[in-house]
Amino acid sequence: MSLLEVQQVTKKYPNQDSKAVNAVSFTLQKGEFVSLVGESGCGKTSLLKLIDGKEDADEGQVLFQGKKVTGPSQNLLPGHPGIEMVFQDFDLFPNQTVFQNISYFLRRYQKWYQEERIQELLDMCGLLGAEKKYPRELSGGEQQRIALARAMANSPQLLLMDEPFSNLDALLKNRLKHQIADLVHQTGTAAVFVTHDVMDALSLSDKIIIMKKGELVQVATPQTLYQYPATPYVARFFPNSNVFSINALSALLPQAVDVLPQNGQEAFLRAEEIEICPEGDALLTGIVKRLEYLGAYTQVQIQLSKDFSLRVNSTNINLSLGEQVPIRFDLKSLHYFTKKK
Ligand SMILES: Nc1ncnc2c1ncn2[C@@H]1O[C@H](COP(=O)(O)OP(=O)(O)OP(=O)(O)O)[C@@H](O)[C@H]1O
User: GO cellular component annotations, sorted alphabetically (predicted)?
Assistant: First the structure.
């Protein structure tokens, strides 16, 4: 039995024209780490609230450990006890100290255990010594970590995290994201992690769900998602992907018309699959339009025609804007999408 089964869940808020969540189905196993990625307003938070029983579904159902999760219409205190949710706005008690904020979630335990557990949680989140502070005395990132510590206090079976790293600096985010992933794997806690950053999703998840306008577009492992994005929307989440129309490429490569499909479809090519090459080996030639130095390589935007440019990853640090550069790639490495939208 799956830990969580989301079955055809649909939600439309009053006064909204379209459904915030539309016939969404997926399963989650014990200890599995799933990321939910999608553009702003596509229904990620709504889906988390439906899973946790904080919103009523119009259609479909959520089963947690085989039992139906009921919403606020049937519960005085919405929210399932085995599921914890970390909200984007932290939801801390403003007039209580950090210790009180966390201990409220441990109120059923004896004082000595509360104290021990709170030290453990604060240590994990890098906030030892903050027990007596009030939320207003903490930075956004610190408040966010307290919200995480609080959600993990009771070692929930399912942790729902709504962009938990949005207020953290890069150093802290890197530390915390690996701690959370380790914790999930060590304790058998399952997690649904909402993020805008598909690279975070790639590095942390067992499975990634891509959402668009309330619907699931693709559910896949990070490897499959990266190699075979099902639609242009999915591919565009990756900073190194080039999505373009085959017609635009065919116009520049009349000699390749026979090997390129002529149905006006889109294709994609990763920036690392294209190289700047010696002039005699060029497939195409373009002008350097933008240089983005990223440490290990530079991402170079090369304009090939008025409406067609490609991003290329290059280790050449001597390129300059406006320079003419020859590029090549294997036409066989072009990827085509299995779905249109
Ligand atoms: N309580 C509500 N009442 C009415 N409409 C809502 C409510 N909550 C969300 N919506 C609408 O439902 C849609 C989905 O919102 P939701 O917050 O779930 O998206 P999201 O993907 O989490 O967005 P973001 O990434 O910006 O947080 C949006 O159009 C939003 O305006």
Answer: ATP-binding cassette (ABC) transporter complex
77 pLDDT exceeds 80? no
Distance from the CA of 157 to the center of ligand 1, in angstroms? Answer: 26
Contact status, residue 63 vs residue 46, Cβ threshold 8 Å: no
Phi, psi angles (nearest 5°) of residue 123: -60, -45
SS3 call for 150:
helix
**How many Å lie between the centroid of ligand 1 and the Cα of residue 80?**
21
Give the ipTM: 0.98
Q: Which atom of ligand 1 is nearest to the CA of 42?
A: 21
Taking residues 72-97, report their average pLDDT. Answer: 85
Query: 270 and 277 in contact (C-beta within 8 Å)?
Result: no
Q: Which atom of ligand 1 is nearest to the CA of 211?
A: 21
For 121-147, the pLDDT digits (tens) are: 998 878 899 999 999 999 888 888 898
DSSP string, 165-194: TTTS-HHHHHHHHHHHHHHHHHH--EEEEE
**Token code pair at residue 175:** 């530390």
Query: Which residue matches tokens 């906030």?
Result: 127
- Domains defined for the chain, CATH in brackets: 4-234 (3.40.50.300), 241-329 (2.40.50.140)
Fill in the DSSP letter of residue 42: S
Ligand 1 centre and the CA of 19: distance in Å? 10
* Torsion sign, CA atoms 120, 168, 198, 291: negative
Cβ contact 141:148 at 8 Å: no
The Cβ of residue 311 has, within 10 Å, a number of other Cβ atoms equal to: 20
* Protein residues with CB under 6 Å of any ligand 1 atom: 13, 16, 20, 38, 40-46
